[in-house]
Amino acid sequence: MRLKTTAAAAMAAIAFGSSGTAFANAELLKMQENPNDWVMQNGDYASTRYSKLNQINADNVKDLKVAWTFSTGVLRGHEGGPLVIGDVMYIHAPFPNTVFALDLKNEGKILWKYEPRQDTSVIPVMCCDTVNRGVAYGDGKIFLYQADATLVALDAKSGEKVWSVSNGDPKKGETGTSAPMVVKDKVYVGISGGEFGVRGHLTAYNIKDGKQAWRGYSMGPDSDTLMDPQKTTHLGKPVGKDSGTATWEGDQWKIGGGTTWGWYSYDPDLNLVYYGSGNPSTWNPVQRPGDNRWSMTIWARDADTGMAKWVYQMTPHDEWDYDGINEMILVDKEIGGKMRKALVHFDRNGFAYTMDRENGELLVAEKYDPAVNWATHVDMETGRPQVVAKYSTHQNGEDVNSTGICPAALGTKDQQPASYSPKTGVFYVPTNHVCMDYEPFQVSYTAGQPYVGATLSMYPAPGGDHLGNFIAWDADKGKILWSNPEQFSVWSGALSTAGDVVFYGTLEGYLKAVDANTGKELYKFKTPSGIIGNVNTYMHNGKQYIAVLSGLGGWAGIGMAAGLEDPTAGLGAVGAYASLSEYTQLGGQLTVFELPD
Amino acid sequence: MGLESSIKHVAAAAIIGGSLFAGSSLAVSDSDGDYREFTFNADTPYFFQDGKVDFGTYNGFRRYHSECHVCHGPAGLGSSYAPALIKSMDVMDFAKFVDVVVRGKQDGTLVMPSFADNMNVLPYLDDIYAYLKARADGAIPGATRPAKFPKVK
User: Fold this and answer.
1) What's the CA gap between A187 and A143, in Å, rounded?
2) How far is B6 from chain A (nearest CA, A)?
3) Which of A176, A164, A45, A400 is nearest to B149 (CA)?
4) Cα dihedral across residues B72, B76, B79, B84: positive or negative
5) Given pLDDT bands bounded at 50, 70 and 90, which one contains residue A249?
6) Is residue A103 among the annotated active site residues?
7) What is the per-residue DSSP string for A4-47?
């Protein structure tokens, strides 16, 4: 019955697409409660990636089998995952960003296909593969954020383009990879291109006509960052006038990075949208003195106006490329003996943060991989990580190779989202277990050209022979509960369910199911290519399905051949390392799993 | 090894060729100077001896990793959307290399942008070529930073 209701709601939305502001919000708030559907990339506004479905559970998951498959026809990295709304599944592909609507009533028959024409010159300005993290739904429309930074609204029923708007200029290195998010009458998109000196922003467009509602930059004067010097706070204190330029030298903030290519979350009660900003442009920290605010920052903005309520900079003056863009998971939970509206964030820098999402108070900041060594701890008063001089690429200076820094630039976790089960109270986190050598040097800025200025080598953490772990995390105590080693970095988003099963994919291409309480592996199946997509679940005709995109790529797919090399072995090691290409190859495919009848 | 080492580059090449890289011919300097005195030319683009390279080749390593790595992969090994340059160098002389980097190249969805405006690339074409040639010849093994790269200049 719920399925029918949702389908009806979707039909109504399509029929009355222009019915306005409140409708889209109410619609999505309600739709995210329906476990039969999967209406936004991370499952719900809180980004929990949790499903109340329990037909597939810890006892029977071992019997899982492939129900059906679908080729996207595209090579390269497939991040994100399908949306399911009633009888229709919407899936997307990397560049050229094809979108398919598949009919679940009719064996996945293609209802419509949309393939934008984009200038191929956008490909080389996309750092680390031409990925896309998925489409969004709202108000009877499917929102596609193309590689060339064009945001397109498609009629969900017909696939016809309703409107499109340019959110950036690829000639300046501005590209689109993130999944949009719809809140009320607006759709939010960020911008990619931190390695090209792009200045990051989050921008809201009216879902009805694509007209820009507001844009909040990561750095710049208060009029750009949408900050109130008195009312916007950092750890409870007002940020002060033009805090977005005050910690930059000269005009460097104009090419400051702080891009916004990760995930966005929303709390309807507080009416705040949460996201993180990325690294400050060049990887040579010597070239950009100061704290480089507000790169590497957790943001809480008013969903209607974009005004920043609070910010927290995790890695001031980044020296390691620890982008702060990972998802913010919003949970109401007892922290330190007190119920909190919490925000939990597993940052690239190797610290997992638990914050009060109402006021930005820092509650917990602990390492979620014991290998993390660039800082000893986070000072809970100042919020600053206590940097270890040996691993400071700035203190060691330009043209010096700082070695043995953990984590590597790809972070203890990259964009692959974690999951939270309210049933177990535990966070399930796909992680990297990779360290690096890092050598900064002088570079000059040219619009549309890479602005990097560092070399780096990546390899497994000391004493280890594996590049990833899948962990369970206690966000109150700041402790790892259990940790499963994985040969390669876990670059797939997790899913936890009321069936006490947690799902994730691996770079070799396995879909894995583990026990939510113990981490014990219960099932695995090897899909045709490495998985960097995010596992989803839905119910159709009374049957629960698990869906995931395969398709190796992204930074993981590119860099891992080097990552497995022993950096200390010199000449003798040539050819001795295991490459990911020995395990899997490129190729985009959706695989859907079910229990036998 | 002393800075005024008299070991000829040819000898170094022979050692490497004999141990690991039989069949590949290493491009080496025909000057008798050490890595600090080496100057680039298209036929002998890099100096390699006892793990040491000239500054240009080292700089090429840096520039490559800053500007080219994200597409062409660590150490020229290639990626899911750009060819392995350590293989391309077998069929690419210096003139062709310069041509492709300056003008770019387009072949379906394989797109090499023009780097004509890139001041982190254009002034260092010699260096990047030298590094890639050294990689292709096997003189610089692996993707990591060779330990004996000099910190001079």
Assistant:
1) 8
2) 23
3) A400
4) positive
5) very high
6) no
7) HHHHHHHHHHHHTTTS-HHHHHHHHHHHTT-TT-B-STTSSTT-
Maximum CA extent, chain A: 68
What the block records as the tokens of A497 is: 């369910």
Q: What is the pLDDT of residue A22?
A: 52
Determine the residue type at A123.
I
Helix (H), strand (E) at residue B71: helix B69-72
| Angstrom distance (rounded) from CA A185 to CA A13 | 13
pTM: 0.89
Say what the ipTM of the complex is. 0.76
Least confident interval from A20-24, A463-467, A541-545: A20-24
Separation between Cα atoms, residue A464 and residue A484, nearest integer Å: 13
Per-10-residue mean pLDDT, chain B, length 153:
29 28 39 71 86 86 86 77 85 93 84 89 94 89 66 51
Provide the pLDDT for residue B36: 73
Distance from the Cα of B31 to chain A's closest Cα (Å) equals 25
Annotated active-site residue in A37, A139, A321, A323: A321
Query: Chain A residue with minimal CA distance to B78?
Result: A558
Residue A304 burial (CB < 10 Å; 0-12/13-18/19+)? middle
Name A284's Cβ contacts closer than 8 Å, sequence gap at least 6. Answer: A398, A440, A441, A442, A443, A453, A454
Q: Do residues A53 and A497 touch, judged by C-beta distance below 8 A?
A: yes
The single residue listed with the structure tokens 């980097």 is B101
> A4: how many CB neighbours lie within 10 A of its CB?
11
Buried b (16+ CB within 10 A) or exposed e, B33-42: ebbeebebee
Cis peptide bond upstream of A96, omega within 30: yes
Secondary structure of residue A146 in the 3-state scheme: coil
Which of A123, A450, A456 lies at the smallest CB-CB distance from B111?
A123
Q: Which two tokens stand for residue A113?
A: 């296909």
Residue B113, token pair as written in the block? 């942008």
Indicate the residue of A124, A283, A399 with minimum beta-carbon distance to B112. A124
Length of chain B, please?
A: 153
Residue A582's pLDDT band (cuts 50, 70, 90):
confident
Return d(Cα A497, Cα A49) in angstroms, integer: 9
Nearest to A76 among B62, B80, B138 (CB): B80
A–B: how many Cβ contacts below 8 A? Answer: 116
CB neighbour list of residue A559: distance below 8 Å, 6 or more residues apart: A410, A458, B73, B74
Tokens of B101: 């980097």
Contact partners, residue A39, CB within 8 Å, separation at least 6? A28, A31, A32, A83, A84, A85, A137
Q: Which one, of B63, B70, B62, B69, lies nearest residue B118 by Cα? A: B63
Q: Which percentage of chain A shows pLDDT scores above 90?
A: 82
**A483 and A428 Cβ atoms separated by less than 8 Å:** no
Interface of A with B in 208-247 (CB under 8 A): none
Give the number of residues written for chain A: 597
How far off is chain B from A437, nearest CA to CA, in Å? 9
C-alpha A155/C-alpha A262 separation (Å) is 25
